Amino acid sequence: MSNTPDSQWEIQAMWWRNVTLIFAIAFLAIGIAGFIDGLVAPPTADGVAMDGMHGRLFGLFPVNWLHNVVHLAFGLWGFFAYFSGRLPSRVYLRSVAVVYAVFTVMGIIPGLNTTFGLVPLYGHDVWLHALLAVVAGIVGFGVTERESDVTTARTGERGRI
């Protein structure tokens, strides 16, 4: 691949799709791992009303069945966005950045850190959610496209990246 402006743009736009695919695989794997008893340590007393399959994934991250379903949903959404193209991937990353930033803040506020007793968001989840939000935000909001590429994408002259 040459180092022309078009090839640079294609490489830059692939960031959205590649990071989306990484997030999709990670979310799906973590969602599945949360349902495997051998990977979930017993929980500490923490006031989660939805205590089905409640514990600490890998002994660190508090999860329950609803938390696992949320991970699976974000993973499936990520695969859908990845296979739909670069712009759905960008929307996915921007959405992950905003949602996980909110989860980070919720994780440090008593009462909200269990999502009203439904989903545990405290402990090691706080820094992990912050990391996810920052990475998704940097790629989703930081990688931009040139105006000529926006126009070309709207007119349909360029294939999907």
Uncertain stretches: none
DSSP summary: helix tally = 5
By helix and strand content, what is the structural category?
mainly alpha
User: Tell me, what's the shape?
Assistant: globular
The sequence of SSEs as H and E is HEEEHHHH
The helical percent reads 55-70%
Q: Numbering strands along the chain, what is their spatial order in the largest sheet?
A: 1-2-3
Assess the beta-strand content as a share of residues: under 5%
Number of strands: 3
| Major sheet summary line | 3 strands, antiparallel
What average pLDDT do the residues reach? 83
Roughly how many Å is the radius of gyration? 18 Å
Structure report:
There is one protein chain. 61% of the residues lie in helices and 5% in strands. With 161 residues, the chain is mainly alpha-helical. It has a three-stranded antiparallel β-sheet with strand order 1-2-3. A hairpin with a 3-residue loop joins strand 2 and strand 3. The longest helix has 29 residues.
